[in-house]
Amino acid sequence: MASTRRSRPDQTAPRDNYQEVTDRIIAALEAGVVPWRRPWDPALAGQNTMPSNATTGRFYRGINVLMLALSPFAWSTGDNRWCSYKQAAERGWQVRKGERGTTVFFFKKLERKDAEGAPELTGDGTQRFIPMLRASTVFHASQMDGISEVPASGPHEVSWRRPEAVDTILRNSGAVIRIGGSQAFYNPSSDHIQMPPHECFSSPELFGAVALHELAHWSGAESRLDRDLTRTFGIARYAEEELRAELASCFMGNTIGLPSDIPNHASYLHSWLKKLRDDKREIFRAAAAAQRIADFCLAFHPDYRAAAEETQEPVADERLAA
């Protein structure tokens, strides 16, 4: 008689981080939750809600913004601080027993070597590296004892979180912005952004959030970040661009303190789900591209650009996730 005993999965098989992350985001989207969008809280207007490292003060970026947004701690407190168990211990903070951490990722470059063990070089003589995705565990400040209270700060502590910040960014970008009509969009052929009149929006903050979303699309022109903005390939191709602009506008909104819950057409959501199911690395590429878009647009604010190098964690190039 044939055995009915079920075989157990190979416990020694390496974890597929790409698939695990993609599965979590797919599950959230299928449940009707867009995990990277922070519910708009007027009390936090003008505050930076991007997750930051509690010990270095640097902000997490790219895919790690999405990973930390999946945690219930991300939206339940006004504290955006995280760090590893080791970092907490070095500061004398104690992660409470039984607390579960949240996974973040980084790319580690491993040297490629030839058959004789010598460094392998590219055609231009630079050393070849193999990008390896590595996971790390961090804990939220509310999971620790001994950590100080979240520092009290006014809502407009720095110039790029003041109400006029969006105007500064738009003006310095040089983007052509036309006001009128009932739709907001970027037109690649005429290279202009169309925005409805200000009175069509429920608040100046919402106008700013939508304007930055369209500026994210504007950044993709050949003379700027050079993304494929053609719409001739159908909704699936355009949805890829929309996902990058969506993520970028959320990154910018969280940095400046603007709404990030701008509605999207339902067809985009279906296309995102299909793309993620078909390609487990797409969300990594999209998040990395979105971070570059956000960096590009925010840098039009001179004060932000001057401070960025000291406040940003490195972000992996999307080609490392290919």
UniProtKB/TrEMBL annotation:
Q: Does the keyword Signal apply?
A: no
State the InterPro entries in the record.
Antirestriction_ArdC, ArdC_N, MPTase-PolyVal
**A Pfam family per the record:** MPTase-PolyVal
Q: Where is the Polyvalent protein metallopeptidase domain?
A: 164-288
Q: Which UniProt keywords apply?
A: Plasmid
User: A single Gene Ontology molecular function, please?
Assistant: single-stranded DNA binding
Give all residue intervals belonging to the N-terminal domain: 16-139
Give the protein's recorded name.
Answer: DUF1738 domain-containing protein
